[in-house]
Amino acid sequence: GIATDGTITTTTVKRRRKASIKKAKDASSSTSNAPSNDTSLIEDETTTTTTTTVHHKQHSRLSKFLRYKRFWFIALIFISIFAALYQPIEEAASQTREKYVDPFVEKISLPNFAVSLEMGRELREKGFKKKHPVVMVPGFITSALEVWEGLDCAQESNSRSQVWGGFSMMKRILTDKSCWLKHMMLHPESGLDPEGVRIRGGEGIKSVDYFISGYYVFAPVVDNLAMLGYDVNSLHVATYDWRLSFHNMEQRDRHFTRLKLKIESMRIIEDQKVVVLCHSLGAVQFYYFMQWMKHTQPNGEQWFNDNIESYVDIAGPLLGVPKAISALLSGEMRDTAQFGAFQKYILNPFFTLEQRAALFRSWNSNLEMMVKGNSNLWRDLVLFDQEYHIPQNVTAENLKEFLGINTDEHVKAKLANIDLSYRTDFSSSDYNSSDRSHWSNPLASQLPEAPDMKVYCLYGFGKSTETGYYYKPAENVTGMVKYEMDFSKVSVNDSLSFGVFSGDGDGTVPLVSLGYPCAKLWRKKSHNPAQLKVVTREYKHEPLPIWEDVRGGTLSSDHVDILNNRNTIRDVIYIATGNGDQLEDQILSEVGKFPDLE
User: Fold this and answer.
1) How many whole angstroms separate alpha carbon 67 and alpha carbon 1?
2) Residue 160, Cβ neighbours under 10 Å: how many?
3) Count of Cβ atoms closer than 10 Å to residue 9 Cβ
4) 3-state secondary structure 457-479
5) Quick one: how far is CA 129 from the chain centroid?
6) Active-site positions?
7) What is the pTM of this model?
8) Whose CA is closest to 66, among 505, 503, 552?
9) 454 forms bridges with which residues in the sheet?
10) Please, which residues have CB within 8 angstroms of residue 138's CB and are 6 or more apart in sequence?
11) What is the tens place of the pLDDT at every residue in 9-30?
12) What is the pLDDT of residues 2-11, one digit of tens each?
């Protein structure tokens, strides 16, 4: 564990961590791996075994920076290549592109980051086997999007090639960035495809297992479940177009109707209730689905009791993320702020602030991830120096008003239809539970009255995560971007860097958004009237050095890498195989210190 003075106690985790990585790397060539002798798999693997303390300096400052930036370090390499080649390519004839650029992109590949099968193998040896069918709901930007109808500028517009995900995406950006933006951007008013364009979510497990060849997303979960007997008959991925608002997912694609029917068919065919495994935005989407079922379908709440074994939230931003604010305001977030003053030379020539802001504002899913609650849960979200004479900082209370004034009329109109508040009295005459503005906000709605359904929240903590921003008036003020991040703002304790405030979380989602609903809110009858069993499982972020594993290894609890975390895999297998009742709360962070919102 970590003491308040910044010291850590010696643990056995380092030795076991190295052993697990070695096993993962040898998995492809090994034909017989003996199961672990550890008989207490449910115990947290970060349990202290001695009382000796050492100063908390696991990695150097440089390695910490590189590990924190590992994905964007790779992204920067590609962006730099594209930026360097883009202008000559634009001027070159199409035959030249086909001759030199296309083969170049096709040959690019990322390192094959190891997927650990250790836990699936170990639990199979202990007698665990398939029981409940599993439906996986992926998160924001981690599943593929395909072109079904494209503009004249798009090559292979009718071939269902990927406009998001895979090297097909990179090829499109490299050869014609403007065309790619036209396809990825939604209509600002309707929030749907622009005329002449049809983009749809990719289908099947292959659309979510790897984002780009070698960079896994759901592959570790799928591969470990396969070792227990799961296959395409008992494992389904509910893909969707993650750019859309939840309402438009149903209006355009009938996503929730299809999800309901798929769950029903799997429950009938497998003769078992379904485990719904949600990652990131997928957890918020399924919460919305629960409200949609309650208020639009006959016997909607009873349906959950009859069909759903467990709702499993993995790293879900249930109370939103601050980066949704900065993305809408200026097209920036901590990942871009790390470029600092060099952003104008490296990133902006390739994707300007205006282009990024316009793209993010068109994706209405960003509004579904808007910060929810009040200042008891969230610090000031956007701050300004006094020299700019801006009347007040931006808080959770005045957030909607601020964004409405400083983005555009379309964002303002859509924000008006989203409830970001908190309430306890659901019988009040001024509350209408069938108003869909409440449906993606756990603070302003209730879990379904389905007492047999279980809820599990699995998430990481202990990684620096953005929680707020310093802004200043934009140097070149336009109607699109009025303010930009103030990169000059830093602090000596790393809580403020390049104008970005940081706190605890999983690197993407702050701790309060990850843990507050499960650890506190849903323990109350006001928001969990049927008293569904709610289990919170936290995993401390304990990555390997970047030179040992660039993704952090099997004890990384980063927002995406948690899907390869051995403890996450273990708990998912327990739930899917009907052993979820053996899992109890494992709360190791300070999530319990957040105040009650009475």
Assistant:
1) 21
2) 13
3) 16
4) EEEEECECEEEEEEEEECCCCCC
5) 29
6) 280, 506, 559
7) 0.82
8) 552
9) 310, 533
10) 208, 217, 218, 237, 238, 239, 242, 279, 280, 282
11) 334 444 444 454 444 445 444 4
12) 333 333 333 4
